[in-house]
Amino acid sequence: MSRSITSTLLSPEAGGPVKRTVLPSGLRVLSQSAPGFRSVTFGVWVGVGSRDEPEQQSGATHFLEHLLFKGTERRDALEISAEIDAVGGEMNAFTGKEYTCYYARVLDSDLPLAVDVICDMITSATLTDADVESERDVIDEEIAMHADETSDHIHDLFAEQLWGTSPLGRSITGTPESVAALTRDQVVSWYRDRYLPANIVVSVAGNVDHDEVVRLVGKAFERHWVNADADPSPVRTDSGLRIPTYGGSHVHHRDVEQAHLVFGMPGLVRNDPRRYVAGVLHGIVGGGMSSRLFQEVREKRGLAYSVFTFGAAYSDAGMVGVYAGCSPKKAPEVLDVVRAELESIASGTITPDELLRGKGQMRGSVVMGLEDTGAKMTRIAKAELVYGELPTVDQILHHIDAVTLDDITALAAELYAGTPALTVMGPFKEDTKAFTL
Question: Is residue 241 predicted with pLDDT exceeding 90?
Answer without folding.
Answer: no
